[in-house]
Protein backbone atom coordinates (compact mmCIF):
# COMPACT_ATOMS: atom_id res chain seq x y z
CA UNK A 1 0.00 0.00 0.00
CA UNK A 2 1.22 3.51 -0.76
CA UNK A 3 1.95 5.64 2.31
CA UNK A 4 -0.36 8.60 2.89
CA UNK A 5 1.30 11.66 1.36
CA UNK A 6 2.85 14.27 3.64
CA UNK A 7 0.61 17.05 2.28
CA UNK A 8 -2.52 15.18 3.34
CA UNK A 9 -1.08 14.37 6.76
CA UNK A 10 -0.02 17.98 7.27
CA UNK A 11 -3.40 19.38 6.23
CA UNK A 12 -5.10 17.12 8.77
CA UNK A 13 -2.65 18.09 11.52
CA UNK A 14 -3.14 21.80 10.75
CA UNK A 15 -6.91 21.40 10.84
CA UNK A 16 -6.96 19.49 14.11
CA UNK A 17 -4.03 21.00 16.05
CA UNK A 18 -3.75 24.42 14.37
CA UNK A 19 -0.94 25.32 11.97
CA UNK A 20 1.82 26.30 14.43
CA UNK A 21 5.32 24.89 14.00
CA UNK A 22 7.71 25.24 16.92
CA UNK A 23 11.42 25.06 16.19
CA UNK A 24 13.76 23.14 18.47
CA UNK A 25 16.85 25.34 18.36
CA UNK A 26 19.11 24.58 21.34
CA UNK A 27 21.23 27.72 21.14
CA UNK A 28 24.07 27.84 23.62
CA UNK A 29 22.49 31.01 25.08
CA UNK A 30 19.15 29.23 25.60
CA UNK A 31 20.80 26.28 27.34
CA UNK A 32 22.40 28.74 29.71
CA UNK A 33 19.12 30.69 30.20
CA UNK A 34 17.49 27.37 31.14
CA UNK A 35 20.22 26.75 33.73
CA UNK A 36 21.77 23.96 31.66
CA UNK A 37 25.38 23.30 30.71
CA UNK A 38 26.35 23.81 27.08
CA UNK A 39 27.09 20.10 26.65
CA UNK A 40 25.37 16.92 25.47
CA UNK A 41 23.55 16.42 28.77
CA UNK A 42 22.20 19.98 28.56
CA UNK A 43 21.23 19.45 24.92
CA UNK A 44 19.39 16.26 25.81
CA UNK A 45 17.52 17.80 28.75
CA UNK A 46 16.51 20.82 26.65
CA UNK A 47 15.32 18.73 23.72
CA UNK A 48 13.39 16.23 25.83
CA UNK A 49 11.65 19.07 27.65
CA UNK A 50 10.49 20.70 24.42
CA UNK A 51 9.27 17.39 23.03
CA UNK A 52 7.48 16.53 26.28
CA UNK A 53 5.83 19.96 26.38
CA UNK A 54 4.72 20.28 22.79
CA UNK A 55 4.80 17.09 20.70
CA UNK A 56 1.31 16.04 21.76
CA UNK A 57 -0.23 19.40 20.80
CA UNK A 58 1.48 21.31 17.98
CA UNK A 59 1.17 20.27 14.35
CA UNK A 60 4.87 20.43 13.57
CA UNK A 61 8.15 20.37 15.50
CA UNK A 62 11.20 21.55 13.58
CA UNK A 63 14.55 20.56 15.05
CA UNK A 64 17.42 22.65 13.64
CA UNK A 65 20.06 20.07 12.83
CA UNK A 66 23.06 22.40 13.25
CA UNK A 67 22.46 22.75 16.98
CA UNK A 68 22.75 18.96 17.33
CA UNK A 69 25.57 18.47 14.83
CA UNK A 70 27.77 20.82 16.85
CA UNK A 71 28.04 18.07 19.50
CA UNK A 72 29.09 15.41 16.96
CA UNK A 73 27.75 11.87 17.03
CA UNK A 74 26.34 12.23 20.56
CA UNK A 75 24.38 15.28 19.46
CA UNK A 76 23.01 13.33 16.50
CA UNK A 77 21.94 10.57 18.89
CA UNK A 78 19.91 13.16 20.83
CA UNK A 79 18.37 14.30 17.55
CA UNK A 80 17.46 10.73 16.57
CA UNK A 81 15.70 10.17 19.89
CA UNK A 82 13.84 13.47 19.57
CA UNK A 83 12.58 12.61 16.10
CA UNK A 84 11.27 9.24 17.28
CA UNK A 85 9.68 10.62 20.47
CA UNK A 86 8.06 13.59 18.74
CA UNK A 87 6.59 11.42 15.99
CA UNK A 88 5.33 8.88 18.53
CA UNK A 89 3.51 11.71 20.35
CA UNK A 90 1.77 12.73 17.13
CA UNK A 91 3.78 15.74 15.93
CA UNK A 92 5.03 15.88 12.39
CA UNK A 93 8.80 16.37 12.40
CA UNK A 94 10.27 18.80 9.92
CA UNK A 95 14.03 18.34 9.96
CA UNK A 96 15.59 21.72 9.37
CA UNK A 97 18.80 20.65 7.65
CA UNK A 98 18.70 22.98 4.61
CA UNK A 99 20.55 20.50 2.45
CA UNK A 100 21.48 21.23 -1.14
CA UNK A 101 24.13 19.67 -3.39
CA UNK A 102 24.63 18.09 -6.78
CA UNK A 103 22.03 15.44 -7.50
CA UNK A 104 24.21 12.40 -6.78
CA UNK A 105 25.05 13.77 -3.31
CA UNK A 106 21.47 14.89 -2.80
CA UNK A 107 20.53 11.23 -3.10
CA UNK A 108 22.56 10.55 0.05
CA UNK A 109 20.81 13.37 1.90
CA UNK A 110 17.50 11.93 0.74
CA UNK A 111 18.55 8.54 2.12
CA UNK A 112 19.33 10.21 5.45
CA UNK A 113 16.07 12.09 6.00
CA UNK A 114 13.47 10.66 3.63
CA UNK A 115 14.08 6.91 3.71
CA UNK A 116 12.06 5.12 6.40
CA UNK A 117 15.04 2.82 7.02
CA UNK A 118 17.13 5.72 8.35
CA UNK A 119 17.33 6.60 12.05
CA UNK A 120 16.85 10.26 11.06
CA UNK A 121 13.78 9.61 8.91
CA UNK A 122 11.54 12.64 9.27
CA UNK A 123 8.14 13.70 8.00
CA UNK A 124 9.85 16.40 5.94
CA UNK A 125 13.18 18.15 5.44
CA UNK A 126 14.24 21.65 4.39
CA UNK A 127 16.37 21.88 1.24
CA UNK A 128 18.04 24.64 -0.76
CA UNK A 129 17.31 24.81 -4.51
CA UNK A 130 20.07 27.26 -5.28
CA UNK A 131 22.21 24.59 -6.99
CA UNK A 132 19.31 24.40 -9.44
CA UNK A 133 15.85 23.02 -8.72
CA UNK A 134 16.65 19.88 -10.71
CA UNK A 135 19.41 18.99 -8.25
CA UNK A 136 16.64 18.29 -5.73
CA UNK A 137 15.15 15.48 -7.84
CA UNK A 138 16.43 12.60 -5.66
CA UNK A 139 14.85 14.21 -2.58
CA UNK A 140 11.58 14.91 -4.39
CA UNK A 141 11.41 11.31 -5.60
CA UNK A 142 12.32 9.84 -2.21
CA UNK A 143 9.70 12.00 -0.50
CA UNK A 144 6.99 10.87 -2.88
CA UNK A 145 7.94 7.23 -2.38
CA UNK A 146 7.94 7.40 1.43
CA UNK A 147 5.00 9.77 2.00
CA UNK A 148 7.28 12.47 3.36
CA UNK A 149 7.74 16.08 2.31
CA UNK A 150 10.33 18.58 1.18
CA UNK A 151 10.35 22.30 2.03
CA UNK A 152 12.25 24.28 -0.57
CA UNK A 153 13.81 27.63 0.33
CA UNK A 154 12.20 30.33 -1.82
CA UNK A 155 12.35 33.70 -0.04
CA UNK A 156 14.18 33.34 3.25
CA UNK A 157 13.56 35.48 6.31
CA UNK A 158 17.06 36.98 6.50
CA UNK A 159 17.66 40.34 4.82
CA UNK A 160 20.71 39.01 2.91
CA UNK A 161 18.56 36.48 1.04
CA UNK A 162 17.10 39.08 -1.31
CA UNK A 163 20.44 39.58 -3.12
CA UNK A 164 20.14 36.07 -4.54
CA UNK A 165 16.45 35.27 -4.35
CA UNK A 166 15.09 38.55 -5.77
CA UNK A 167 17.59 38.63 -8.63
CA UNK A 168 16.18 38.34 -12.10
CA UNK A 169 16.41 34.95 -13.78
CA UNK A 170 16.52 34.36 -17.54
CA UNK A 171 12.99 35.11 -18.70
CA UNK A 172 12.53 38.08 -16.37
CA UNK A 173 10.98 36.50 -13.25
CA UNK A 174 12.76 36.60 -9.91
CA UNK A 175 14.79 33.54 -8.99
CA UNK A 176 12.41 32.93 -6.08
CA UNK A 177 9.45 32.96 -8.47
CA UNK A 178 11.21 30.41 -10.69
CA UNK A 179 11.57 28.12 -7.66
CA UNK A 180 7.93 28.68 -6.68
CA UNK A 181 6.86 27.76 -10.21
CA UNK A 182 8.83 24.52 -9.96
CA UNK A 183 7.17 23.78 -6.62
CA UNK A 184 3.72 24.43 -8.09
CA UNK A 185 4.48 22.02 -10.93
CA UNK A 186 5.51 19.30 -8.43
CA UNK A 187 2.24 19.72 -6.52
CA UNK A 188 -0.07 19.94 -9.49
CA UNK A 189 -3.25 17.92 -8.97
CA UNK A 190 -2.41 16.90 -5.40
CA UNK A 191 -5.40 16.99 -3.07
CA UNK A 192 -5.88 18.36 -0.44
CA UNK A 193 -2.36 19.79 -0.48
CA UNK A 194 0.88 18.92 -2.22
CA UNK A 195 3.87 17.56 -0.31
CA UNK A 196 6.43 20.04 -1.65
CA UNK A 197 6.43 23.16 0.48
CA UNK A 198 8.06 26.55 0.08
CA UNK A 199 9.89 28.50 2.75
CA UNK A 200 8.83 32.15 2.71
CA UNK A 201 9.85 34.39 5.60
CA UNK A 202 7.18 36.11 7.67
CA UNK A 203 9.57 39.07 7.85
CA UNK A 204 9.27 40.05 4.19
CA UNK A 205 6.64 42.78 4.46
CA UNK A 206 5.19 41.78 1.13
CA UNK A 207 6.13 38.60 -0.69
CA UNK A 208 5.76 40.14 -4.15
CA UNK A 209 5.60 36.69 -5.76
CA UNK A 210 2.85 34.28 -6.73
CA UNK A 211 2.43 31.89 -3.79
CA UNK A 212 -0.25 29.67 -5.34
CA UNK A 213 1.93 26.55 -5.22
CA UNK A 214 -0.73 24.14 -3.88
CA UNK A 215 1.66 23.27 -1.08
CA UNK A 216 2.45 24.31 2.47
CA UNK A 217 4.26 27.60 3.07
CA UNK A 218 6.65 27.51 6.02
CA UNK A 219 6.85 31.01 7.49
CA UNK A 220 9.79 31.42 9.88
CA UNK A 221 10.76 34.76 11.35
CA UNK A 222 7.95 35.24 13.89
CA UNK A 223 9.20 36.34 17.30
CA UNK A 224 12.96 36.79 17.59
CA UNK A 225 13.36 38.03 14.00
CA UNK A 226 10.65 40.66 14.44
CA UNK A 227 7.62 39.39 12.50
CA UNK A 228 4.27 38.79 14.21
CA UNK A 229 1.20 36.74 13.38
CA UNK A 230 -0.50 39.97 12.33
CA UNK A 231 1.99 40.29 9.43
CA UNK A 232 0.92 37.02 7.80
CA UNK A 233 -2.15 38.17 5.84
CA UNK A 234 -0.14 40.98 4.21
CA UNK A 235 2.79 38.73 3.30
CA UNK A 236 0.76 35.74 2.14
CA UNK A 237 -2.55 37.14 0.89
CA UNK A 238 -4.96 34.41 -0.21
CA UNK A 239 -2.33 31.73 0.40
CA UNK A 240 -2.47 32.33 4.17
CA UNK A 241 -4.57 29.17 4.65
CA UNK A 242 -1.58 27.10 3.64
CA UNK A 243 0.88 28.87 5.94
CA UNK A 244 2.71 26.96 8.65
CA UNK A 245 4.00 29.76 10.89
CA UNK A 246 7.22 28.84 12.65
CA UNK A 247 8.54 30.16 15.96
CA UNK A 248 11.68 28.99 17.75
CA UNK A 249 13.22 31.39 20.29
CA UNK A 250 9.90 33.20 20.80
CA UNK A 251 8.57 30.05 22.49
CA UNK A 252 11.77 28.42 23.72
CA UNK A 253 12.84 31.43 25.78
CA UNK A 254 9.90 30.72 28.13
CA UNK A 255 11.41 27.39 29.25
CA UNK A 256 12.44 25.32 31.08
CA UNK A 257 8.97 25.08 32.61
CA UNK A 258 6.81 22.67 30.60
CA UNK A 259 3.71 24.63 31.58
CA UNK A 260 5.27 27.91 30.46
CA UNK A 261 6.33 26.42 27.11
CA UNK A 262 2.78 25.18 26.59
CA UNK A 263 1.35 28.57 27.48
CA UNK A 264 3.72 30.29 25.07
CA UNK A 265 2.71 27.97 22.25
CA UNK A 266 -0.95 28.47 23.09
CA UNK A 267 -0.50 32.24 23.00
CA UNK A 268 1.12 32.01 19.57
CA UNK A 269 -1.65 29.70 18.37
CA UNK A 270 -4.38 32.04 19.63
CA UNK A 271 -2.77 35.01 17.89
CA UNK A 272 -2.56 32.99 14.69
CA UNK A 273 -6.15 31.87 14.94
CA UNK A 274 -7.26 35.49 15.19
CA UNK A 275 -5.57 36.42 11.90
CA UNK A 276 -5.64 33.18 9.88
CA UNK A 277 -9.27 32.25 9.34
O1 LIG B 1 14.05 26.88 7.03
C1 LIG B 1 13.91 27.51 8.09
O2 LIG B 1 13.35 27.00 9.05
C2 LIG B 1 14.31 28.92 8.12
C3 LIG B 1 14.23 29.60 6.92
C4 LIG B 1 14.35 31.00 6.92
O3 LIG B 1 14.17 31.65 5.89
N1 LIG B 1 14.61 31.63 8.08
C5 LIG B 1 14.75 30.97 9.27
O4 LIG B 1 14.94 31.63 10.31
N2 LIG B 1 14.68 29.59 9.29
C6 LIG B 1 14.94 28.84 10.54
O5 LIG B 1 13.88 29.13 11.44
C7 LIG B 1 14.38 29.26 12.78
C8 LIG B 1 14.06 30.65 13.27
O6 LIG B 1 14.32 30.74 14.63
P1 LIG B 1 13.78 31.95 15.52
O7 LIG B 1 14.24 33.20 14.87
O8 LIG B 1 14.42 31.71 16.84
O9 LIG B 1 12.27 31.82 15.58
C9 LIG B 1 15.87 28.95 12.71
O10 LIG B 1 16.03 27.58 13.00
C10 LIG B 1 16.23 29.22 11.27
O11 LIG B 1 17.30 28.39 10.84
TrEMBL record:
The keyword Nuclease does not apply. Its EC number is 4.1.1.23. Residues 19-264 form the Orotidine 5'-phosphate decarboxylase domain. GO terms for biological process: 'de novo' pyrimidine nucleobase biosynthetic process; 'de novo' UMP biosynthetic process. PROSITE patterns: OMPDECASE (PS00156). It catalyses: orotidine 5'-phosphate + H(+) = UMP + CO2. Keywords: Decarboxylase, Lyase, Pyrimidine biosynthesis. The keyword Lyase applies. NCBIfam families: pyrF_sub2. HAMAP family: OMPdecase_type2. This is Orotidine 5'-phosphate decarboxylase. The gene is pyrF.
